[in-house]
Amino acid sequence: MDYPVVAEPEGVKLKPELMEIEKLYYCIFQDKIMLFFKDQNELLNCYEIEDKEIVETVKKSSSTEDIENILQKFIDKENVNH
Predict the structure, then answer these.
(1) Closest CA to 28 of 60, 57, 59, 71
(2) Which of 8, 12, 31, 80 shows a CA-CA span of 20 to 30 A to 2?
(3) What single-letter DSSP state applies at residue 21?
(4) Long-range Cβ contacts of 5-11 (<8 Å, 24+ apart)
(5) Structural element, H or E, at residue 81
């Protein structure tokens, strides 16, 4: 299966038909992490993370599992601060 989110020079291309419901997908575009997921109603949700430390940590990571853990820690931190 192709990954449903691809960052290209002209922008981010999405294939929502390939997305699983409630699964987080990401890419790095213009020094931002772009997060996407399709909810239970099949609505596409998009978030961006501009935090330079998080972006650099994700760029240096070599595995999807590590990146998901990095993003989950960021999300948990943001939820505590709001």
Answers:
(1) 59
(2) 31
(3) B
(4) 5/34, 5/36, 7/34
(5) helix 64-81
Whose tokens are 């099949």? That residue is: 42
Two structure tokens written together for 55 = 């972006």
pLDDT, one tens digit per residue, over 15-64 is 999 999 999 899 999 999 999 999 999 999 999 999 898 899 888 887 77
Looking at residue 14, its amino acid is L
Distance CA 28, CA 30 (A): 7
41 token code pair: 């109603």
What is the H or E stretch that residue 5 is in? strand 5-8
Q: What is the DSSP string of 41-73?
A: T--EEEEEE--HHHHHHHHH--SHHHHHHHHHH
3-class secondary structure, 11: strand
